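ZP: hey, is the 2-phosphoglycolic acid complex queued? I don't see it on the tracker
AM: it wasn't, my bad. submitting now with these inputs:
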Amino acid sequence: MAGNWKMYKTPAETIAFFDKFRPLVAQSNHCEIVICPPFTNLAAAVESARGLPIGIGAQNIGWAKEGAFTGEVSGSMIRALGASHAIVGHSERRQYFAETDGTVLKRTQAALEFELTPIVCVGERLEERETGRTEELLVTQFQNGIAGLSESQFARIVIAYEPVWAIGTGKTATPEIAADAHRVIRSQVRAKFGRAAGDSVRILYGGSVKPDNVKSLMAQPEIDGVLVGGASLDPVSFASIVNF
Ligand code: PGA
């Protein structure tokens, strides 16, 4: 159950979040919990989550170890702060910051190189859904991105299916729509990396996940977890998602 805070919260607000969140998930050992705050809050989040089974992740990761890349933050830097995960290829990165399947692959490989678990995002836009090209788009994103990993690299990633039309819009994909997309992705995984990889890869659903719809999404055997934006900013709401 992963939370993506996007560009919200200061370090002080991060500490306040964890003070409220900690007791609410103290007994939650049924799943892995990951919170991805902005880079500037990673240190505060790692410190606040110390001793708890909560992973902390970045929302993006540079593809080089270091160098003249103004504005980028590398995997070695993220790792040095004690983070364990990195979101890669979020649709907002693709839409506003010219992220491509090629750069998503490079960033995914960088995360793996620095022993961070990449949460690799894919998903169609409304236009593709409405013109019946969802499957084609998911296949293209897979083939041009994730398929470039080796088998051993692939074994260490998490995939997040996030239909762009469902992000921050309040329009959740129905559990059936989400499960269909997950099946498309999983069949790509099987074809490229083998049956066992297809069975074991974790695929999260993201897009307007809330406390009141998480249960029906998680009831789909195809859906292994969720990536939550807006509803992860509030400790009570994210805890009730985690404890669905
Ligand atoms: P949302 O965002 O839950 O606010 O729709 C999900 C995401 O972008 O990861």
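AM: back. The mean pLDDT is 97.
ZP: great, adding it to the tracker
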